[in-house]
TrEMBL record:
Matches recorded under Pfam families: DUF1697
InterPro entries, per database record: DUF1697
Protein name per the record: DUF1697 domain-containing protein
Amino acid sequence: MTVYLALLRGINVGGKNKIKMADLRHVLESIGLNRVETYIQSGNVLFESDDEEDTLRKKIENEIETIFGFPVVVVLRTAAELERVIRVCPFSEEEIKEAEWANSEGESLYVALLTHPPLKQKMDDLNRFKSGEDDCRIVNRDIYLLLRHSIRHSKLANHLQKLDVPATIRNWKTMNRLHTLAKSRTDKE
């Protein structure tokens, strides 16, 4: 079985689209996913399945909308893809430290995980919002964001929706924790 990570976009944020993690686990187990485990309240789910990504994404999105009554974008990565996200970070340690030093408002390194790569023209349009404060680099269907101020005030981050690709964003600490959880499963195989 393949170890997957499902990243749900926009749940339990600002009192909207509330889903209790115990309820989410139960729903995902009811559609045949194995060893379902959630991490924090923002919709990070590890599970195992033999199904293909597109089939799984549609199945999960449909079941969440049916049970909870609102649509949710689900982005999937396998444990191997998640490991690659961590391993190929395009920013140097020096660049990350510099951004962290400048940023007194929170995290500096984020990853926007997309369901599929954006069109080159759309990515070129997004690149216009890069600045001395905000930088991004795309690797396959992941966009690494390096911010020197809060993500809430980032013009670059706020324009990600213009890529016209479903996406969700996680900070680097969360990505590393999810990688550790996924790795613990694959190391046991």
